[in-house]
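Here is one such tokenized protein:
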Amino acid sequence: MISGFNPADMYGVDHIRRVLTTFPGVFCGIGEFSVYKEFVSSKIAGEKASLTNPALDRILEFAGEVGLIALLHTDIERPFPKMDQPPHLALQTKELFLRHRKTKIIWAHIGLGRVVRPLVQQADAIARALKNPDLDHVYYDISWDEVSKYATESEESAKRVSTIINRHADRFLFGTDCVAPKNRQAMVKVFEGYEKIWKRLTPEARRMVCFENHERLFDQAKKDVRAWEKANLGAG
């Protein structure tokens, strides 16, 4: 995966192209890169990234042209929102996804984080998105122990999440993604944190979420990017 580019820089797409030119045959995606990420994105030098910045559109458009998977972290809400605050970021995220239907996008952590809790009825909103054919290029990453905390905080939430995953098992991906793990057990703990979900999934759904969806998406991306490199860079 190519990282180290600024999604608020109009030349960010040139960095991605330069990496492909310098290292053909290596990369199949971009990211994880952040637009809104709690208190992290404000530390990036220069203009603050946003979901409406044309630089981000250039990057996602180029990713779609090449066949690169885009692993995007953008929060579904601002930290510590007011109770009556409209879900502006959620709406802008949806509009961004709709503008880039030719790009395979993985939404990291479904927009959740340490201080970014799920929206009210977020599960229903995700269920509607999964049924929308204009969003069938978007995949949902459920990695990170912070996400498992919300998904399994009650039997009701675990049942709701597992029901959605069972119905759309080809659209979800799991990974460990714990911050600064000191040992292997720290990463295994993330997997174990989803036990309420795993036991409710069908064997086929669990296999797809943990293994097969990754293999299908990234194997295809490798083929697509290699073909683009051959056609545009003369790479063998």
In short: The first strand starts at residue 29 and ends at 34. The beta strands are 29-34, 69-73, 105-107, 138-141, 172-173.
